[in-house]
Amino acid sequence: MKLLRLKITDPQGFRSLQTGFEHYFRTEWALQDEQGFAPFILAGRNGSGKSNLLEVLAAIFYHLECMYLLNLPDSFRYEEQENPNGFRSDQASPDGFEIEYLMPPPPDLDREDEQVRIRIIKPPEQAPVWALWNPLQEAWEALPAGAELRRQLLPDYILGYSSGENEILSLPFFKMRFIQFDEYWQALTQQLSYPGRPESRLVYLDSGFSQAILLCNLLLQDAATLSPFQEDIGIAALREFRIVIQLSFELDIDQISAFAILSGPQQQSIEDIIARHPALEPVETDDGFPRCRVNVVKLLDGEEDDPNAIIARFKRCATCWFLDPTTDTLYLDYYVNEATRQAFRENFDFAITGSPIGLFQAFQVLLTLNLYSVSDSLKADLYQSDSLYVSESVPILAADERIIRFKNVWLTKTDVAEPVLLKSFSDGEHQLLHTLGLCLLFKNTHSLFLLDEPETHFNPDWRANFVTRLYDSFGDADRQEMLITTHTPFVISDSRPEKVLVFRNYSG
């Protein structure tokens, strides 16, 4: 994935990017000379607008992704009568834009080129229009009809990260996280199949994903890939860890109706819904009111020999596991050796794909289920909100109420005699493992990385060598696009001059 051009045509602009703003990421000459991976560095003082470029790209690809998703909640979709403020393809923020980028041609597109040039134009108050560049005719051609082809021409993943609280960047990702939850919840309530991973490709990799990212890398990546962790932090190996999965929780009575099998004039009683839905189990009460627990991971569980069930796969990789029947909590303990790593390779497709993303997506689904306490009314408000404070309205669960949590992550370090608990690492060490780790995790994908100040807690030496670490990790790969914001000279000094974009404030 390579960005070529971006233009804002919304009369209102987008943040500090005024209408008419246009930037060419690469010219034809630059494309011919470009070799290997090199991130764009967006440099400027705080408030200079450097983050707005990341934010507008996140907003644009969020809009395009939502247009072609098959699984969208009813409270998100536009309905003239029922949901007049729902999502519409002809309304976006920014409401007018033009974007051009390169992607490999998908199998459904009859092209022999290594890369196809894609142009998407969204006029204000109109739906986006797609076109492909025909190099033989030297002209743009309308893309054949079909939502699936357009989905295939979007980046594999759009990945967001911010070291601070950048609500503008995180808002589209935050909404997409709830869409991913509703995709699973709808499959659970309606007894549909679930593929074991989210349909959408937007992922905001905040601190809640830190331990999942680290485990994926340390369990599945080879020693050469992990060398920065050893050289900079002194990590020798992952020693042991525990995964705790809450298999069920008690539903509020107003949540039970969503599990009804019958609809229309044949309304079911609460008791009948509980009795007939396989994911529900009645709870004995003293007040006479019907209550139940929902097996929230039912679509991820299965028999011990089920090759696809996520929970069964985690059990097969575990050194030992225990189910506490009083709390319906599954404890999985892992003492890590080569046999453990081989088990994860075999059970999470690494042996086939050579990618740790299968394991990451298993963690992602379970982490997304931690949103179960958010009410339908709050989600409906969130989907339609442009407020930068919307995340503050989402309740934060106590540790023992979460569907998944990681505990007792112990590592060995080259400069310490005894194993070290991950919790004891410094802020800078955590950030390096997180930011470099997410890059390693998705390095073999055609993805767009949007990293807002990923080095704020680094020491000066790590800051000055962060881009070099990325060069070493990505090598000659040129599949991905990465934009990094910074307000310090350290990252700039480690970057290619032609990739540095300087942002300034102008008044008057």
UniProtKB/TrEMBL annotation:
PANTHER family per UniProt: DNA REPLICATION AND REPAIR PROTEIN RECF, SLR1056 PROTEIN
Pfam family of the protein (one): AAA_21
Highest classification ranks of the organism: Bacteria, Bacillati, Cyanobacteriota, Cyanophyceae, Oscillatoriophycideae
Record-linked InterPro entries: ATPase_AAA_core, P-loop_NTPase, Restrict_AAA
ATPase AAA-type core domain boundaries: 387-493
Name recorded for this polypeptide: Restriction system-associated AAA family ATPase
